[in-house]
Amino acid sequence: MKDLYKKLINSKKFKEWKQKHKESFLCSYIFIELPQFDFYNKGDTITSFIMGDDIEMMEDEKFLKSKEKLKELKLDDIKVNQEKALDFIKEKKEYHKRIIILQKTKEPFWNITLISASKLLNIKINAVNEKILSKTIEPISKLMRKVA
User: Fold this and answer.
1) Contact, 41 vs 21, CB < 8 A?
2) What pLDDT was estimated at residue 93?
3) Which residues of the chain carry a pLDDT beneath 50?
4) What is the pLDDT of residue 146?
5) Dihedral sign computed on CA atoms, order 133, 134, 135, 140
6) For 77-89, what is each residue's pLDDT tens digit?
7) Given 46, 49, 64, 93, which residue has the most CB atoms within 10 angstroms?
8) Which helix (H) or strand (E) covers residue 85, if one does?
């Protein structure tokens, strides 16, 4: 992740964007199918940089605000990398889809959601001290709406 971040911040696309957005800061790292770095902008928007073969930029997207205010994510503070965070999940092989998010509200934490055909697992792990903050497993049917 840190090597990808270096690749991003050294890219021409990022440098040109950052010149116009000096107050924006890294607020999350997301991995679904491709890694992505999100930057919080003034005006409560996010600019995302998706790290594929080329760097794709999605500017000024609205996002769902939570109760906790997003804070700057400093990757040098992270002691638990993505692979180590996934090692906390013993049953991970039975899940088909992964949503992995690193962000900071009070402390930096990994928010990992794994999805199978029948259930959804969510675990939050402190990215500095390795403590499990929460873990829930729910049937996927709980997410489905009833159609009348």
Assistant:
1) yes
2) 73
3) 148
4) 52
5) negative
6) 999 999 999 888 8
7) 49
8) helix 82-86
The whole-number pLDDT of residue 68 equals 66
Tell me the three state secondary structure of residue 18: helix
Q: Who's near 60: CB < 8 A, 6+ residues apart?
A: 41, 43, 45, 46, 47
The first and second tokens of residue 119, run together, are: 């259930």
Cβ atoms 47, 41 nearer than 8 A:
yes
d(CA 57, CA 108): 24
- Separation of CA 125 from chain center: 13
Taking the C-alpha atoms of residue 26 and residue 70, their distance in angstroms, rounded to an integer, is: 10
Contact assessment for residue 27 and residue 42, using Cβ atoms and an 8 Å cutoff: no
pLDDT score for 35: 96
Q: Are 37 and 3 in contact (CB under 8 A)?
A: no
In whole angstroms, what is the distance from residue 132 CA to residue 124 CA?
Answer: 6
> Which residue has 């270096």 as its token pair?
6
Structure tokens at 17: 């964007």
* Token code pair at residue 37: 């770095």
Name which of 67, 66, 26 is nearest 48 in CA terms.
Answer: 26
Q: Kindly state the helix (H) or strand (E) to which residue 19 belongs, with its residue range.
A: helix 12-20
